[in-house]
UniProtKB/TrEMBL annotation:
Keyword Transmembrane helix on entry: yes
Species this protein is from: Crateriforma conspicua
InterPro entries linked: MFS (IPR011701), MFS_dom (IPR020846), MFS_trans_sf (IPR036259)
Gene3D superfamilies listed in its UniProt record: MFS general substrate transporter like domains
Protein name, entry field: Lysophospholipid transporter LplT
Gene name, Swiss-Prot/TrEMBL: lplT
Length: 445
């Protein structure tokens, strides 16, 4: 039976469960990204060996969303969503326990064990996501959905911010910053107890979620569920504004994926910051996105979505350029203090760009294809995120060979985004107000 109140044990349990899930994803992923970046001190001491490996981590985490997203959506309709959520949380405990072993075993097997755990973590999140968003309409009355989605979005962003920010202090507390990556990784097995504890708490809270009816128990698995369904391919071919919006969304998530890696590299390698301050810089992007999302939602009621989008477009370009500038003989133009507001404003600009496109992609298709449009959008976005990992590794190689500053990645991001800012025009004849967090990844990519 659907509830007409959010003050129920079931909804509160759901909210706590998804908060802990997003927190753990971002804590563990940021720990690995910090390990993957050589610090300025290690480079100066000649202890840093090999390239920046953040791109590999990004690819490994994103691949399950690309290849298993369709199957996860099928499962969410075929089986009980509460069962999928509880099962996913139990799997998270196992994955975090494997993470503890992988950290301890780094001196013996290298980072391969951690990459395997990161892949399993992405796979667990892939199956958790459709159940998470799909259960709300089955748990609550329709009039409660906007408030419920707002609470989910708010707690997700809080979890992203806290989880990302906590990774740096945890690593600094357990590992001497001058210790190179392999030896540092082994010491982090103790920190894995935090991730295991969070996974256990999330599993316990998931048990309070009420059981809901199965959406379609007779649903049969079809090959098209694993790719772009034929009706969606036909729609995208016939509706060019929709296709261009999807491509613009992909470019945005390509840039978003590069941003996290670029900030970690800027903080640790170029500015010589601690892991704590580097993680703080990354988390401030999400703060900016959260604030920008609220402002963008308000502005779309006052002006056209196209105007909001173009403010965001040029804002992304401007702040990427500012973050890219390194003055010969003086170092990074903004430094750590100046990068803080720049990163928050970059996040806000990103929200100004992303929200109108997301609303357009949700509202433009006919009602019978809206759900599949969201699935295609998510799949396309994660293809772009995986692409960002590959592109970052190429950029890292070029920057290292040319001896350019690490902030050069931001210059490349600005160059990639300028054509979108110049050419793309959103068809805002279908302006709408966003009603939920569909399409928002649970990690700071």
């Amino acid at each position: 039976m659907k509830s007409d109140s959010l003050a129920t044990r079931s909804f509160v349990g759901f909210l706590v469960t998804q908060f802990f899930g997003a927190f753990n994803d971002n804590l563990f992923k940021q720990l690995l990204l910090l390990l993957a970046v050589p610090s300025a001190a290690a480079i100066a001491a000649g202890q840093a060996k090999g390239p920046d490996l953040q791109g590999i981590a990004t690819v490994v985490f994103g691949l399950p969303f690309v290849f298993a997203g369709g199957l996860a959506g099928f499962w969410a309709d075929k089986f009980n969503k509460r069962t999928i959520i509880v099962g996913s949380k139990m799997a998270e405990i196992v994955v975090m326990a494997l993470g503890m072993i992988a950290f301890w075993a780094v001196p013996y097997v290298g980072f391969y064990g951690l990459w395997a755990v990161l892949f399993l973590m992405g796979l667990q999140s892939t199956f958790f996501g459709p159940g998470k968003y799909g259960i709300l309409p089955e748990m609550l009355e329709k009039r409660q959905l906007p408030r419920a989605n707002g609470l989910v979005l708010m707690t997700t962003f809080v979890a992203i911010i806290i989880g990302t920010a906590a990774a740096g202090p945890l690593k600094d507390a357990l590992v001497d910053p001058d210790i190179p990556g392999v030896r540092a990784a082994q010491k982090l097995w103790i920190g894995s107890f935090v991730c295991i504890g969070i996974a256990i708490l999330g599993t316990i809270s998931s048990l309070f979620i009420a059981r809901v009816p199965v959406a379609d128990p007779d649903l049969k698995l079809k090959a098209e569920y694993l790719t772009v369904p034929k009706p969606m391919r036909r729609l995208l071919v016939e509706d060019k504004p929709l296709l261009w919006a999807l491509l613009a969304s992909c470019v945005f998530w390509l840039i978003a994926g590069l941003t996290i890696q670029a900030v970690n590299s800027l903080g640790k390698t170029q500015l010589g910051l601690s892991d704590t301050n580097t993680s703080l810089m990354v988390s401030l992007i999400s703060v900016g996105i959260a604030i920008g999302g609220v402002v963008a939602g308000w502005l779309t009621r006052k002006t056209s979505a196209r105007t909001v989008l173009h403010i965001g477009c040029w804002g992304v370009v401007l702040f990427c350029v500012l973050l890219a500038i390194t003055v010969p003989g003086r170092g990074h133009l903004l430094g750590f203090p100046g990068s803080i507001p720049a990163l928050m404003l970059l996040g806000a600009s990103a929200a100004f760009f992303a929200i109108p496109i997301q609303v357009f992609l949700q509202s433009r298709p006919p009602d019978e294809l809206k759900g599949r449009m969201i699935a295609v959008m998510n799949q396309a976005n994660f293809i772009a995120i995986v692409g960002s990992g590959i592109l970052y590794q190429i950029m890292d190689l070029v920057i290292s060979q040319a001896a350019w500053p690490r902030s050069s990645v931001f210059a490349a991001m600005a160059v990639l985004f300028v054509p979108v800012a110049i050419v793309y025009r959103l068809d805002d004849s279908d302006d709408a107000v966003p009603s939920g967090p569909d399409g928002i990844p649970e990690t700071a990519v």
